[in-house]
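Q: How do we represent a protein-ligand complex in a form that can be generated token by token?
A: Start from the inputs.
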Amino acid sequence: MIQKIQTLSGYIHEYQKSITQPEEFWGRVAESFHWQQKWDQVVSWDFEKPDVKWFLNGKLNITENIFERHLYTLGDKPAIIWEPNDPSEASITLTYRELYEKTCQFANAMLEQGIQKGDRVIIYMPMVPEAAIAMLACARIGAVHSVVFAGFSANSLADRIIDCQAKAILTSDGNFRGTKTIPVKAVVDEALEKTRTIEKIIVLKRTNIEVTMKEGRDIWWHEAIEGVSTAHQAEVMDSEDLFFILYTSGSTGKPKGVVHSCGGYMVYAEYSFANVFQYSQGDVYWCTADIGWITGHSYIVYGPLLAGATSIMFEGVPTHPHPGRFWEIVDKYKVNQFYTAPTAIRALQAYGLDPVEPYKLDSLKVIGSVGEPINEEAWHWYHDHIGKGKCPIVDTWWQTETGGILISPIAGVTPTKPAFATLPLPGVQLMIVDNEGNELKGNGVEGNLCVKFPWPSMLRTTYGDHERCRQTYFSSFKGLYFTGDGVKRDHDGYYRILGRVDDVINVSGHRMGTAEVENAINEHPKVIESAVVGYPHDIKGQGIYAFAICDLEGRTEASLKEEIKQTVSKIIGPIAKPDQVQIVSGLPKTRSGKIMRRILRKVASKDLNNMGDTSTLLNPDVVEEIIKGAGL
Ligand code: 7RM
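Then emit the structure tokens for the protein with 5'-O-(acetylsulfamoyl)adenosine bound:
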């Protein structure tokens, strides 16, 4: 198992070593894993192409490192503790041995259904243990999973199926979320009207709602595993074989399939998990993310299980059946490390302290935050009322593309600072550049956040379109990986993430391209043109504000606004539904026809100071009208 960093001087030493001798450093970390064949080179890289490889020619299977590596010592230890949506339903604990057997059995079942190494498999499931089993079983046989958040619409699901030419879908009949039962299989059926590649659908019974099953294509999960062996010899994977695809939004209209590979992802997932959270054997760890996001991949499933941790998986929502649910669960399982998102913290903070007070929360040692900048007020509330002033907050900055946490305090080892992600983890070589790509050296600087040296869990490509990967991440600043985030390095050398500098908005920690939302709005037959911007939102961090030019014939403004919101919800999913829609007669445009989003952002955030020069606009009059229309 990985040696954790234990002291500040240990961190400084390890960081130094990781940048002066990266090959020795990562080679040593990788030694603690089980390789069927050792690598013959630690790293080879070229950020121009880009072409990045780690642990070249190493052979491994990540599930052997989760199971076979630990079974002897940790076989009876809980691997996953599952807490259902409904607190009166029984929870489920799976030990490492039980999870191993279920993974092997489902791996065999998938093979029987004709799913093989290299096939792309969509996982569209609620937060149930089988979702983790589905991921692990794919990893076991070398199938490439692409988990799609179960809140996404049929349309978004279809786009992803088509893009990765998936052969199979692992899904459920329905999904319990709070007081709602969401049909899941029905959404899959709808998506499949648009796709042609799916040969198999394995359906887990969760809610017992009625579903249609297509003969020969659809099979129940419980039938697929019936009588199937629980022994399976792991597929041998090359370090650089595709491990999984996860779709994420960027500044264009179409989500990208971020590709991670086997060896580097494995090494970094465990390394970062063990260090950031300072997990000790016997601890109970809980990350509240959904497995549909990268946080669920790296810090519910792979990182914790590689480290032999006990990982809690929660099916429900923070406020059901009451806003103290998170804290109730913390006390119930004596959670030691708790990892959630600023949007959840702010939402719960809004209920005041009454829902917190009944709980002791005295098992907590480390509390974490991820997904968006955490404002100071939320940081202090979290620190004082959840951490009771004694738990370090790990504000972890990272991305789908980075695979694992790159900037974060190491709990109890390196200092914390409210609203700062603080310092890079070992192996992470950051650079701040101005818009021309000049490095901003020293402290007290602000600019674009880049990384200048590869780290093991970085993305390798975007599925089916390598050029897009190069364009998006490696072309803005020569020789650097560009994150899309703005950052400040303060006088102490600590990093504070300022948010996206591109056309990406972050709503409750979920990334959304403004273009993606615009495309959805434009699907409405009455919409002529639209522009979407983010604006500060008390709970969500950012809200979605849409400006739309419409043909109002036969509609009232109010009815059309509602229809537009519903259109987006239908096309992308409820998470992308605009908070505000404003019908306008025109959009502010430059002479070259580009929408001046800067102005729209000002209006959306009700801040009319420093509007800048609007006289160069093609249509300066429209600005006045938009300001009036916004009620400002
Ligand atoms: C893990 C995840 C990535 C974007 C990223 C940032 C923002 C994430 C933080 C943060 C400030 C943080 N992956 N972001 N973590 N901003 N502080 N601790 O969220 O691909 O879905 O989003 O999220 O803008 O670029 S993600």
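The pocket of 5'-O-(acetylsulfamoyl)adenosine is lined by residues 248, 293-295, 369-373, 395-400, 421, 483-485, 497, 499-500, 506, 509, 511 (CB under 6 Å). The chain has a mean pLDDT of 96.
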